[in-house]
Amino acid sequence: MKVTKADSTKIDSVDFNNLVFGAKFSDHMLVCNYRNGAWEEPEIKPYGPFTFTPAMHTLHYGQALFEGQKAYHMGDGKVGIFRLEANAKRLNHSARRMFMPEFPEEWFVDGIKKLIELDKAWVPDDENSALYIRPFMFGSSEFVAARPSEDFTFCVILSPVGPYYAGNVKVKVEEQYTRSATGGVGSTKCAGNYAGAFFPTNEARKEGYTQVIWTDHKNHELVEESGTMNIAFVINDTFITPPLSDRILAGITRDSILTLLRDTEMLKVEERPIKVEEVVEAARKGTLQEAFGMGTAAVVSQISTIGFRGEDFEIATPADGYALKIKKALTDIRQGKVADPYGWMEIL
Ligand code: COI
Q: Is the CB of 228 under 6 A from ligand 1?
C-alpha cells in the first residue's frame, strides 16, 4: 500500500476537551478506486478534498454507502479497534444490495489498522470519547444515465469524537413517514436511508423531540428503530428488541449487547416483534422500566420521553439502571478495563 505522509499535523487545532461529533478529521485518509471491474491498489495519503465532475454518478443517483466504528485507548499506550471485521462484512452486505462492488475484507481491516497506526495521536484519551472511523463508498463514474455506476471510490476518514447526544433522548412515535419497507434497503447503511430521515426528524424536532421511533411501513404498529439507532425496551426485567429483517439495520452495537446480555444473564432477552401498543401499555402501567437506543455513535442512549399521538410518556433514566450498566460493560471491554472474551478488539 502506498503511504504518503502529511507534511504537518492539524492536531493542534483540535480542542480534545470539547469534541463535537464528526466535525474534525485526522491528518490522513485511505482511498481506493474501482476501475475497469477491479479495485486498484489502496493508498493512504494526506486528508484533503476530492475533485469531481458535476456529472459524477453519486450526485445524481446516490449509489453511496458508509460504515461507522470506533477506536479507543486501552491503557498502556495501546489502541484497540472494535469489531472491524463485522464492519467489513456489513459494508459488503450494503454493497451487494446497492449493486456496488464488494471491498476485500482483508484490505478493509489492514488498511484501517495502518491508517490508525499513522494517526494514533488522534485517538482521544478521555473515556467518553473515541476515534470515529468512517469508511464510505460512492459511485464515481461520469455519466447521468440512470444505470449503475461503473467506477467507485472507497475511502476511510477518521474523526475524534465526544458523545453523540448531549443528554437523554426524547422520541416521537412516527406514524406518517417510514424509514424502510420490506424488500427495500433498510438493512443497509446506504446514504439515502439517512437523507430520507431528515425531514420526518425535523418535523419531530419542531414538536420538541430529538428523534423519531420508526414503525413498520404497513400499519405503523411495530416498533423498528429509533433515529439512527436500534431500539430496546426493558419491561418486567426483560430486554426486548425487534428482530432483524430487511427493514432494520443489523447494528454491531445491538449484536454486541445481545451477546453480553445472553452471557451475563443480567436480564432476560427477547428478540421479537414489539408493538407500539405494548410499549404504551407498559408505560401506562408502570412496567416500562427503561428504553434506549443502541448504535456506534451514541453506544447506548437513554430515552427519557416517548411521544405518542399527542401524549408524552416519561421514562426513567436511572444512573444505576440497565442501560448504563450495559453501556459500561461494553465500554469496559473497549477501553481494556476488563477481559475481551469475544476477541472484539483489534489491538494495535
Ligand atoms: C450509528 O451510530 O449507528 C450511526 O450510524 C451513526 C451515524 C449516523 C452518525
A: yes
339 within domain boundaries: no
Q: Rounded to 10 degrees, what is the CA torsion of 166, 171, 176, 179?
A: 60
Segment 92-127, tens digit of pLDDT: 999 999 999 999 999 999 999 999 999 999 999 988
Å from CA of 327 to ligand 1 middle: 16
Please tell me what DSSP assigns to residue 341: T
Q: Based on the fold, state whether residues 225 and 290 are members of the same structural domain.
A: yes
For ligand 1, pick from 65, 229, 231, 254 the residue to mutate: most ligand atoms within 8 Å of CB: 229
Please tell me whether residues 136 and 21 are part of one structural domain. Answer: yes
- Which CATH number belongs to the domain containing residue 326 in this structure? 3.20.10.10
Decide which of 121, 143, 162 is a domain's last residue: 162
Ligand 1 contact via 301 beta carbon (within 6 Å): no
> Does residue 338 lie within any of the structural domains?
no
Mean pLDDT of 303-327: 96
Number of domains in the chain: 2
To the question of pTM greater than 0.85 for the whole model, the response is yes
Which residue, 41, 3, 5, is CA-closest to 121? Answer: 5
What is the arithmetic mean of pLDDT over 289-300? 94
**Which residue from 3, 24, 255, 1 is spatially nearest to 131, judged by alpha carbons?**
24
- With a 6 A CB cut-off, is 293 part of the ligand 1 pocket? no
